[in-house]
Structure formats: structure tokens, C-alpha cells
Amino acid sequence: MPRSSLQAPTSVVMIRPHHFTPNAETALDNHFQTHTASDAASMAQAAHAEVTRAAEALQAVGVHVHLFEDEGTDTPDSVFPNNWFSTHTGGHVAVYPMYSPNRRGERRQDVLEMLKRDYRVQDIIDYSGLEQDNLFLEGTGAMVIDHLERVAYAARSKRTSEILLERFCTHFNYEPVVFDAVDANGKPIYHTNVLMCIGTDFAMIGLDSIPDAPRRREVAERLRRGERDIIELSHAQIADFAGNAIELQGREGLVLALSSRALRSLDAEQRETLESHVSLLPLDIPTIEHAGGSVRCMIAGLHLSARTPQTA
């Protein structure tokens, strides 16, 4: 029997956009966004194809993919559903308030109805109304969750309210670990999931992104309490989205989904350490990465019990 883990979901939600474009509203604080000379139609077509191929690659290794279509033109970041909802063992679902007004339309009732239909959902806690109070917590972008140790790691930013983080952790029984994080130019990192990834037996993290040395040591020590191999990422590797990966449960065992660009940035020793724990599954998504997110952002993991066995 392939090894399974509470950290690695067997099923995911992905959104396939039909009118993808980098979001001008989020560019002010997402310094991972990049400009491209491609015209809008070509970019949209390329992003649609990238999501299609990524979903097929995940299905091929045994991950069950719920693929939803976004044919709208006013939700440029819809390809990143992990920001507006998350799921948790015991049948719990959270819906989140989003910082940018044009991201709030990404929340979809049909996704929530699918979860209730196909999985054992006990409750849905909807924090989205707190947008009116300027309180934001953008899901598993704002938080990197250790489901085994029950810890929610969060870098401070406009998209991560410490007040709401505390409330989430109280509701869902996690320990909050909060820190400041900056890129190579000293600018705040907008989402925690671009600088760290937690798997069952490893964690990748850009420790150099945490400028306060005592806090850096505390974060590293908390990660090591889970008896994981710690893989330190450089600023350059973070910029190549090496931290924006997700461990999933495949047919033959644990899989780490990451972008082709992220994989190229890793050195031989880092790859060897990862491959001692997971199979690496690189996904080619250069167009989507122009929007400042990568594979982890594209995948909303389902930590719920299916009502009937699912096949990928």
C-alpha cells in the first residue's frame, strides 16, 4: 500500500480560466508579478492550456481533480482558488475575505455545493463579510498550514490580518506562528506560500526572508519539532517559486507538485533530499507565473472525507 498522509490531500480543486491576465489591482504589493509582451488573447489561450495540462498530469499520477471553468472577464486571478477557501479534517471548510476588490468575485457557490455533495462537510465558516471591516486572510496563500502539527504559519502583509488569523486558529484548532518576511529587495512578501512549503517529512523555506534573527530561529525550531528535513531556499529560488509547491497523495505514493521553473532552480542536494520523501511532478506554467503565483496557488487541496471512493 502506498503511504498516505494527513498533510497530502488526494483530491483538489482547480479553476481553468478562459480570460486569464495578470491582475493590475494586486501588482502594487505582489512583487512576484511580471510584465509580458504577449497580447491578451494569446495569454488567455496559453493559460487555459497550461491549466489543462497541469490537471491532466495530476490525474495521471492518481490525484483526483475537480476542474471548474471560469468564463468571466472580471476575475483575472481566478486560477488561484486556494486564496478564497480551505478545507480541514473533520468536515470543516473556511471561506475567506480577499484584499483586492476584484478578487472577491472568485468565491463560487458551485464549488461549495460540490464539496457538500461529494464530501462529508460538517460546517462552512464564512469570514468574507469581514472585508467590510478591512480584515483580510487570503486562505492557504496567507497561511501555510501544518496539518500534522496543527500549526498555521503566516507572514505579515496587507492580505493577512493577525486578528482574523487568531480567530481562524481558534475556530480550527491551529497554533498561529506569525513573522515578517521580505524579498531580496527588502519588500514585504505578499503571501506566505511563496516562501515556504510543508510536506509530511520535509519543509522548504526561505529562512533568509525572515529578517529578524531570533524569530527566524524560532520558526526553524518549530518546523523541526515535526522531525522534518528542512530545505533552505535562497532569495533567488523563492523568486523562481521554489517555495510555492504542494505535497499531494498520488496512486503510488506522495507527490510534490511544483513548477518546471521551480524545479530548475533547485540544486542537486535539494532535489535528492526531496526525492527521498516524494516523487517530483514538475508542471510547465510560465504564463500563469506572470501573475505572481505558481503551482501551490493553483491548487486548493481537499482535506475532507469523500462520500464515495473517487478515482483519478
From TrEMBL:
<protein>
    <recommendedName>
        <fullName>Amidinotransferase</fullName>
    </recommendedName>
</protein>
<dbReference type="Pfam" id="PF19420">
    <property type="entry name" value="DDAH_eukar"/>
</dbReference>
<dbReference type="InterPro" id="IPR014541">
    <property type="entry name" value="Amdntrnsf_FN0238"/>
</dbReference>
